[in-house]
Amino acid sequence: MKKNNSVIFKGGKSGIIVLLDERASFKDITTALREKTRSASGFFSGAQTSLVFKGKQLTEDEIVTLLEIIDEETNLSFTFVEDLTGPAVTEIAPPPLPDPSFEPKPADDTYFHKHSLRNGQAIIQNGSVVVLGDVNSGAEIIATGNVLVFGALRGMVHAGSGGNEKAFICAMTLQPTQVLRIANEKVIFPGEGFGDNKIDPGFAFLKDGDIHVRFVADI
Amino acid sequence: MGEIIVVTSGKGGVGKTTTTANIGSGLATLGKKVVLIDMDIGLRNLDIILGLERHIVYDLVQVVEGRCRMKQALVKDKRLDNLFLLAAPQTRDKDAISPEQMQKLCSSLVDDFDYILIDCPAGIEQGFRNAIVAANKAIVVATPEVNSVRDADRVVGLLESEDFEEIRLVLNRVRPDMVRRKEMLDMEAVTSVLSIDVLGIVPDDEHIIAAGNVGEPAISDPSSPAGMAYANIASRILDINVPMLEIVERHPTFGEKLRNLFRKGR
Question: How far apart are CA B138 and CA A193, in angstroms?
């Protein structure tokens, strides 16, 4: 005789889940349930628990029948019975695993500067820096992390100052008249004194020991 | 209660003193009672531009030190009855006055005048600190040059950190021909860096040098384009809406061209 797998018990977080085969007849299910509960009576050792039926659409009478079987065969007492109708949830795509190389930093490592940075003003940050404004020529940002400027970047920026070669510099308008540095490399932006040479928005990153500057759209 | 406005720039030689003298004269012409304070201690200049050099007996440090009364030190202008000058000493240095003393000096004037204009020295050191301490409004003077704008940006940053109520720009010595040839920054390039309101644009004008030498601010010369620009600036300080002077290249008229040809031929 083929093994009757139309009923499967699972221990869930909130109680016992009874998975019912959608294709099996109700008669098969009652038979299987009686067999399973009898053989697995240790599984139901007198605990107070909740019970969930899953996988097959059941009428109220059918649920009562099944509960009676469980009641006859075990000494389980139910606190809660739930009928989740619809087909059995056989396989749920597991949530994507986090990239092991990605290390989220605590939020307070990023400094948000909510003004423009003018000539003579400086930010030195252990972490990343976001400027909501311009960084004018003569202003300096030195950060061990990334530097993002929501405005024009004209001043001196050193990202990844601790040697972090993955650090980058990004600006709505990349228009540096002064040196840009990432980790231990530097780049001297081409252009004349007026600073009319610009990339907006621009992105500077380190690759193979050289700083590359690109349009953000080209990355 | 009067307004205290500091005229500053960071960089030297961009026209702070000229701007102070002309705006002060402009405000006085418009009926306001104005005092100009020369805070460039040791490098006294404002009196020369105003043509008041020979009238100065006492200076502001002597007032602070109690060696004369304020009334004795205030020099009335030659032309305008409601314009006064408080001169800087010639032989002292910037440490001759403390920020607290400056604060006190200005508050003793604030009830008697509508406007107190402070001519700030170049730089961002003690002299600058003394000049800005009592003011809550500032006029930043810059020329359309990268170095001048750079220094103005530094000064604006310092003023912002002192919670100034109003910081406005006077762009001085603009030469439209050079702007057209892209040899000089245009207005947009300057304001995109400084991002402050523009109070006025002053064209480069030979009258300014001539006027300074004879001690008659250019604003009193109706043929001076810079003087006209300063008159507009004075009106704007009084919240009178004056459109920006369009600074255009002056092309010689047909008659002038003929005359020039005639002159060359001689």
Answer: 28
